[in-house]
Each structure stands twice: as C-alpha cells, then as structure tokens.
Amino acid sequence: MKRTLSALCKNEPGVLAKMALECEKYDANILSLAAGETENPKVSRIVLCVDGNDEAIDEVERYLDSLDVVIQIDDLSRKDFVDRELVMIKVGMDREQTGQLMQIFEVFRANVVGMGQKTITVELSGDQERVDGLIKMLIPYGIKSMCRSGMIALKRGDE
Amino acid sequence: MKRTLSALCKNEPGVLAKMALECEKYDANILSLAAGETENPKVSRIVLCVDGNDEAIDEVERYLDSLDVVIQIDDLSRKDFVDRELVMIKVGMDREQTGQLMQIFEVFRANVVGMGQKTITVELSGDQERVDGLIKMLIPYGIKSMCRSGMIALKRGDE
C-alpha cells in the first residue's frame, strides 16, 4: 500500500541516510521524497511516499518517531492535510498540435516555462490527481523528459 | 558553496541511502532533496542541493557518477536549466491585514489553498529568487508553518 509520511527533523547530518536505510531494511520502497527548509532554519521537513506492506510502514514510522532528530511525524493519509506536488514536463510538439496542447495547458492551468524547436516545457503544481491527469493527457504527444518534486503537505486549518 | 546536482537513477532500493551517506562522508550538507518519478517508470530523478567545499562536492559527484544505478548526473550550476521550486506557507492573518496579504499574493501569483480563523495558506511555484522573495514579504505577518519541495530542474531547449 502507498502511504505518505511527513517528518519534522532537526537539521543534522545523516538524517536522510538513516531514514532511507530504515525503509530499505523493511522493504518499504521510497516512491518519492521531498526534503526542504521550514519556517525554522534549524528544522527541515521530509515528506516521503512509500510503498510496502502496512505493518512494515508502521514499523518504519515507529522507528523514525523514536529518533532524537525527529521532532514530529505525521501520516498524511490519516490526518487532514493540503497536499501539493510540482511537475515539469517537456513534451514533443509540431506546429499542427500547438493549439491542442495550449488548450490542455489552459484546462490544467499549467504554465509554459520553455520552448524549443520541437518541444515545449510546462510546469504544474496541484494535487496528485491533477498532476497525474496532465501527464495522461500529454503521453500521446510524447513526453521527452519529466521531473516530479514528490508531495509536500501542510495541515489544514489554523493548527 | 551551494551547488545543485541532478541525478537520473535506476529505481532500485538503497540509491537514496547511498547518496545521503556519501554526502555525509564528505561533509557536504544536503540543504534540500527532491526525488520523484520521470517519464520512465524504471527511472527516477533525484535533485539535491548541497552545501560544502567545492572539492568535496566534486568528489561526491564523481562517486555518484561511478555508481551502477546512476545513469546520468548533471551539475545544474554548470548547464542551462529551468529550475523551479514549490512552497506552501501558512501565514498569520487578522482581518485588517487581509487586503495587504492578498496584494502580496497577487504580485507573486501565489494561490490560496486554505484558510482558517487566524491563518491563510498559499502555494507558490517559481525559481528560488521568487520563492525567497515571497517568504521575505510574509515574515512580518508571522509564518506559522512552511514546507518547501526542494528544487527540480529540466534542461532548456529540445535536448
């Protein structure tokens, strides 16, 4: 099963390696990971989407929670979160298809960030459904390269 | 010095852990990391922003390049790339400030993704300068929580 964990960690060397090794130990496959700064320069947030059996992921979560460097860990599937992902896609384009592609970009509110002779590059941020939707629509045109950020998330409401 | 490396890797367990351990070995501090899917389900792209002395990072780059699981590695500071980052920010808000905040969001083209009694949550995707700019503007209002995806990047042009 796919699950997404969000960990607030102290900015110390070796945190990422520990997390990755632990996931490997339990055969939990890391599908995506986003590690970045937070409002506090001493703290970073690591959001990881893992695939594996439920008990293994529970084990990973418990282990991470037990680490001194981990301040807080949340299972994003269990709580109320706003989640977003960023994707950049370079898609093949010939002149006849430009109009069709532009319509797709407009529907998904994707922004053009670059253009070549034979390709056009767009970015989109949205929930996973929207990102997956755009990718599906662009596959027939030929996706030349793609880069996804992995999911990031914040709790809903004031908390 | 800050440098950003982008690695195309085979989807095999342990890649992330190897990378993270290697960076630690050379005292190259990982500032952010984004690992996600690409157009090829067997391949993922890992973009990492590291801080450390130049020779250490060169060493890390050479080591990563020597790994079987690493297909290609690029130094984003050396080539022509479009880079983007996604950020979500929950910022404090009282009624009198709503108008000012909305103006800032409009200037930066940040999207409101949630609202509570005392806070408002926005997302923004852009280059690091724009993301840092928005954060700077919002600090006086009180940033309650923040999550950054780390940089993602694709080569400019058709390549």
Automatic annotation (TrEMBL), chains A, B:
Stored PANTHER family: ACETOLACTATE SYNTHASE SMALL SUBUNIT, ACETOLACTATE SYNTHASE SMALL SUBUNIT 1, CHLOROPLASTIC
SUBUNIT field: Dimer of large and small chains.
Domain of life: Bacteria
Protein's recorded name: Acetolactate synthase small subunit
NCBIfam families: acolac_sm, PRK11895.1
EC number per UniProt: 2.2.1.6
Family the UniProt entry places it in: Belongs to the acetolactate synthase small subunit family.
TM ranges: none
Pathway recorded for this protein: Amino-acid biosynthesis; L-isoleucine biosynthesis; L-isoleucine from 2-oxobutanoate: step 1/4; Amino-acid biosynthesis; L-valine biosynthesis; L-valine from pyruvate: step 1/4
Keywords noted in UniProt: Amino-acid biosynthesis, Branched-chain amino acid biosynthesis, Transferase
Function: Catalyzes the conversion of 2 pyruvate molecules into acetolactate in the first common step of the biosynthetic pathway of the branched-amino acids such as leucine, isoleucine, and valine.
Top-level EC class as recorded in UniProt: transferase
Catalysed conversion reaction: 2 pyruvate + H(+) = (2S)-2-acetolactate + CO2
Domain ACT stretches: 4-78
Organism: Pseudodesulfovibrio sediminis
Pfam families: ACT_AHAS_ss (PF22629), ALS_ss_C (PF10369)
